[in-house]
Write a structure and sequence with these properties.
The chain is of the alpha+beta class. The chain has helices at residues 2-11, 38-42, 63-72, 89-102, 106-118, 153-159, 171-175, 187-198, 211-215, 293-303, and strands at residues 123-124, 183-184, 202-203, 206-207, 222-225, 232-235, 240-241, 254-258, 264-268, 273-277. The chain is 30% helix and 11% strand.
Length: 304
C-alpha cells in the first residue's frame, strides 16, 4: 500500500523517482546520502534497512524519532548496488517522502486517496472503532539468530528493535503509522486496493493511476541475492517481480510481495487479477509461506 501511494505521486508528477531524496527531504542528505535517489528507497537499495541508533519496540510509534535517525545515519552499503530488504524502515522512508510532498501523513493520504473512494476496509493507523473486529495474530516462534554474525546486515536489521508479533495486540501499535508492518485489513480489502495495479490503474470505475504509471513498477531496480533476506530477489519499483527465483505467476507481467507470518499479494496484469491471502496464525517466514500457494494455484486454475 505504501508503494502504491508513491506510484500515484510519481504518476501525478509530484514525486520523481530519479531525483535525490534530499530534494524533498533536505535533512536526508546527511552522512553522505546526498546522491541517494528516490528509486533507491523504492527498491530497498538505499542501504538503510535498519537503525544505527538503539531502538526499542515502542519507539516505532515515534515518527520523528524514527525518521530523524534514518536521515542522520550513513548507508550500510553503497546505495543502488544491491537490495537489502528494508523490513521496517521502508514505511518511514517512503512515508516521510509522502509527508514532505503532500503535507499529510502516509496513512491520512492513503485513506483519503485510496481507501475512502473504494470503501476499502484497510487502515494505516487504525481507528478505535475497528478494535472489536481485529483478530489478534498468533505469533510464530521467535527468529533464531544465535548462530549468525551479530554485525551482519540481516541481524542488525531484525534485532534493532527486536520484533515481537504480540506487540500488534497493543493499542499503541494499532494507532501508529508504521506502514511497513502495521496496516490492518483483510484479504478482500487487500485485493480490492491492489486491483488498481492489476487493472492498469483503474478499478470500480475509478481511475487512480495512468496505465503508464502502473507499468513503471516493472522497471527492474535490483536483481540478485538480497543482503537481508539472503535469497535471490528481483525488485521493480516497490514490488517484487515475477522471476525464476519466485515464479508466482505463469504470466510475465505480475508483481507481488509477502509478509511476515505468511500473507501474500499477487497482482497479475496479464490475467487482470489480484490475489490476496492473509492469516492470523503466523508461520515462521518473513516474506510469506507455502500456505498461500494452494489458493493461488486454484485461482489461476479458475481463470485458465
Amino acid at each position: 500500500m505504501t508503494f502504491l501511494v508513491a506510484l500515484m505521486l510519481a504518476d501525478r508528477g509530484e514525486l520523481d523517482f530519479d531525483a535525490p531524496v534530499a530534494r524533498y527531504w533536505p535533512e536526508f542528505a546527511a552522512a553522505g546520502k546526498e546522491a541517494v535517489l528516490v528509486r533507491h528507497l523504492m527498491a530497498h537499495t538505499a542501504g538503510l534497512p535498519g537503525w544505527d541508533e538503539p531502538m526499542a519496540p515502542e519507539d516505532l510509534a515515534d515518527w520523528e524519532r524514527c525518521t530523524t535517525a534514518l536521515a542522520a545515519q550513513a548507508p550500510w552499503w553503497e546505495p543502488g548496488t544491491a537490495s537489502g530488504y528494508h523490513a521496517i524502515t521502508q514505511g518511514y522512508l517512503i512515508g516521510e517522502l509522502v509527508r514532505r510532498v503532500t503535507g499529510m501523513s502516509l496513512g491520512t493520504y492513503f485513506k483519503q486517496t485510496f481507501a475512502d473512494p473504494l470503501g476499502a476496509d484497510f487502515h494505516i493507523g487504525t481507528p478505535a472503532e475497528c478494535d472489536p473486529r481485529i483478530s489478534n495474530v498468533i505469533p510464530p516462534a521467535p527468529l533464531d539468530m544465535g548462530a549468525a554474525d551479530p554485525q551482519s546486515i540481516a541481524v542488525r536489521t531484525f534485532s534493532n528493535p527486536g520484533m515481537n508479533a504480540a506487540q500488534s495486540w497493543e493499542t499503541g501499535w494499532r494507532r501508529c503509522e508504521s506502514a511497513a508492518a502495521n496496516g490492518h485489513g483483510n484479504a478482500r480489502s487487500l485485493a480490492l486496493l491492489q486491483s488498481i495495479v492489476s487493472h492498469g490503474g483503474e478499478t470500480q470505475g475509478k481511475r487512480f493511476l495512468s496505465a503508464a504509471g502502473v507499468e513503471k513498477l516493472f522497471e527492474v531496480q535490483a536483481d540478485g541475492t538480497d543482503l537481508v533476506l539472503g535469497v535471490p530477489s528481483r525488485f521493480g519499483m516497490g514490488y517484487g517481480l515475477n522471476s525464476e527465483h519466485t515464479p508466482i505467476s505463469p504470466n510475465p507481467r505480475a508483481c507481488f510481495w509477502g509478509g511476515w507470518g505468511g500473507s501474500l499479494i499477487v497482482n497479475d496484469l496479464d490475467a487482470s487479477m489480484s490475489f490476496a491471502y492473509v492469516m492470523n496464525r503466523m508461520g515462521a517466514g518473513t516474506v510469506g509461506d507455502m500456505r498461500s500457494a494452494g489458493p493461488l494455484m486454484a485461482a489461476y486454475a479458475a481463470v485458465g
